[in-house]
Structure formats: structure tokens, C-alpha cells
TrEMBL record:
Enzyme category, top tier: oxidoreductase
Organism for this UniProt entry: Parasphingorhabdus litoris
Highest taxon of source: Bacteria
Pfam families attached to this UniProt entry: 2OG-FeII_Oxy (PF03171), DIOX_N (PF14226)
Family, similarity comment: Belongs to the iron/ascorbate-dependent oxidoreductase family.
Enzyme Commission designation: 1.13.12.19, 1.14.20.7
Cofactor(s) it depends on: Fe(2+)
Pathway connected to this protein: Alkene biosynthesis; ethylene biosynthesis via 2-oxoglutarate
Name of this protein: 2-oxoglutarate-dependent ethylene/succinate-forming enzyme
């Protein structure tokens, strides 16, 4: 049962409805072995995914000057459009080969978290854009909550432990376009990095390229089937769990020569804690063999700011 599995196999989220403990054991094992899990039957409808993928293709096909109207200078890419050649991984001086759009949580007017979370902007060229991605945001939130319930059970926490920690959290839906890659490009689509947040749920990784760095130091392709999610642990959850659930380094490599002429589209949802949530090592994850690696608690917001500065986005 606790033997490390040698491949990343797909886990059905519907198992959580039939046998909560079995689901928790399987995803817990997958996350502790790999920092990743492939999740099927996640409840996000095929139609919604297809519409969202189509909308992303349509948006990124707009002329450059139209897209750039939605770039907020000095906004760190928190909302709206970030052009090709802006984001670089930590300690990297070569930019990733991608452009992206960020959608944040829609807070009701006057919400206490407004100072931490900018308002969304929407492209006026695409009528259904707002509704489509707000629906996808909500669907990701719901799937994420069910996955977090499994993680809570795995860690011997109350099953609803994470509900309050992520309520109205600073989560972000990112639409990414990786354009065709010239043969002589020195850069890669996305350089090796770790995600900063709690967990990430990704649609679109069936187009090859995503790789994780395993515990032996080898790069391994992450290959969900169409419609499945690739889910990974971020630095904030790694920190909360005293590294019991690792935030695994991953990257998106350039395609084989015959696919270089094709774009790649993906849609990660970075599920975040509430900005005021204090990330303080879980006592369940500290023992004699695992002393507390993070004796200084930090709020999710302060941690995020620290990390965004490192990648040139704050
Ligand atoms: O596009 C992908 O498959 C992964 C993207 C990613 O890792 C990220 O944006 O943090
Ligand atoms: Fe990532």
C-alpha cells in the first residue's frame, strides 16, 4: 500500500463518493510520491472545457495591439493579459515562450479582501468570455475543494479542514498560449519551476510537454488523457505540511520537430489560501524524525508577495 508507485496512474474523483478513505489514500500516496496526481471524473463538464479551450484560442488569435489593450503596466500580470516574453522562472534570465491571461475571484463590492485582490478586466471583443471563465473558475473551485478534502483525510485532519483556509482565497485561472517554437530557440515554453500556491489543477496537458522532476532527479512526462486534470502541490501546501506533500519542480519542454509548428494551450487553476490565512506548520506533520522546517509562520499574502518578486511579477 505505501510502496512508491513507479508510474503516475489516473485516479477517479468519483471514488471519493464511494469510499472516501480509499480515495484519500490513493491521492495522498500519489502526492507524496510525485507531488502530482492525475484526476479523472472531476465533475468539470466536457462542454465547458471545450468552450473554454475554444475561447482561449479565439482570444490569443486577436491582433497583438488588441491583446495589449488588456495589459496592465505595473500590475505584475495579476489580471488581464501578459504579453509574450514577460515571465521568467526564479533565477532564470531567459523568458518563457508563452503569453497568458489571468482571471481572479469576483469579490462582492466592499469585501474585506479587496485590498489583496485586484478587480477582473474583460476583453470587450469576446461576448461570452466573462461568463465562460467565471463558470470554469467556479467548477475548478469545487473540484479543488473535493481534492483538498481527500488531502485532509490523508493528513488525519478534519475532512473540512481546508474549507475555511481557502474560502474567498486569491485563486487565479490562467489561460496560457505557447506559440509555435522556432527551431533555433534558446528558450523553453516554461522553464523549471515550482508553483507558489496551495494546489494547482491543470486542463490541457494532454498536448505533450509537461514534465516533472522525480525524486531520483529524472524528468518524467506527465501525460493525462484528454479531459483529465493534472493536479500538483504548491509551495504553500508543502510548507504547511512540513514537506510531507512536496511541491515538485516541473517545466514545459519544447515539442518534437514535427509539432514545433503547433501552438499549445493550457489552463492551470492556481488554488490559493485566503490572503490572511497564517501558514503555520501542521502539528500532524511534525515528529522526532521530521522537525519543524518552518518555525516562522507567514500569511498567505506575504508569502505570495515574497515569491512574486522573485519571478519578476511584483
Ligand atoms: O502549461 C502547462 O502544462 C503547465 C503550466 C505551469 O506549470 C504553470 O503555468 O505554472
Ligand atoms: Fe507550474
Amino acid at each position: 500500500m505505501s510502496q512508491p508507485h513507479d508510474t503516475l496512474s489516473s485516479i477517479s474523483l468519483s471514488l471519493a463518493d464511494q469510499d472516501k478513505d480509499a480515495f484519500a489514500a490513493r491521492i495522498g500516496q500519489s502526492f507524496s510520491d510525485w507531488g502530482f496526481a492525475i484526476i479523472g471524473d472531476h465533475g468539470i463538464s466536457d462542454d465547458l472545457i471545450a468552450q473554454a479551450e475554444q475561447m482561449s484560442r479565439t482570444f490569443f488569435a486577436l491582433p497583438d495591439d488588441v491583446k495589449r489593450k488588456y495589459h496592465i503596466p505595473g500590475g505584475g500580470g495579476a489580471r488581464g493579459y501578459t504579453p509574450f516574453g514577460t515571465e521568467a522562472a526564479k533565477d532564470s534570465d531567459i523568458h518563457d515562450l508563452k503569453e497568458f491571461w489571468h482571471i481572479g475571484r469576483q469579490l462582492p463590492d466592499g469585501h474585506a479582501f479587496e485590498p489583496f485582490m485586484s478587480a477582473n478586466i474583460w476583453p470587450e471583443e469576446l461576448d461570452e468570455f466573462r461568463d465562460c471563465y467565471l463558470e470554469l473558475f467556479a467548477a475548478f473551485d469545487k473540484a479543488g475543494q473535493r481534492i483538498l478534502e481527500g488531502i485532509a483525510r490523508y493528513l488525519s485532519l478534519e475532512p473540512d479542514f481546508f474549507d475555511d483556509t481557502v474560502r474567498d482565497g486569491n485563486s487565479i485561472l490562467r489561460l496560457i498560449h505557447y506559440p509555435p517554437v522556432p527551431a533555433d530557440s534558446p528558450a523553453v515554453r516554461a522553464a523549471a519551476h515550482e508553483d507558489i500556491n496551495t494546489i494547482t489543477l491543470l486542463i490541457g496537458a494532454e498536448e505533450a510537454g509537461l514534465e516533472l522532476l522525480d525524486k531520483q532527479g529524472n524528468w518524467r512526462p506527465v501525460t493525462p488523457k484528454p479531459g483529465e486534470l493534472a493536479v500538483n502541490i504548491g509551495d504553500m501546501l508543502q510548507r504547511l505540511t512540513n514537506n510531507r506533500l512536496p511541491s515538485t519542480t516541473h517545466r514545459v519542454v519544447n515539442p518534437a520537430p514535427e509539432r514545433r509548428g503547433h501552438s499549445r494551450y493550457s489552463m492551470p487553476f492556481f488554488l490559493h489560501f485566503r490572503p490572511d490565512y497564517l501558514i503555520e506548520t501542521l502539528p500532524q506533520c511534525i515528529d522526532q524524525n521530521h522537525p519543524d522546517l518552518y518555525p516562522e509562520p507567514i500569511t498567505a499574502h506575504d508569502y505570495l508577495m515574497e515569491r512574486l518578486r522573485e519571478i519578476g511579477l511584483a
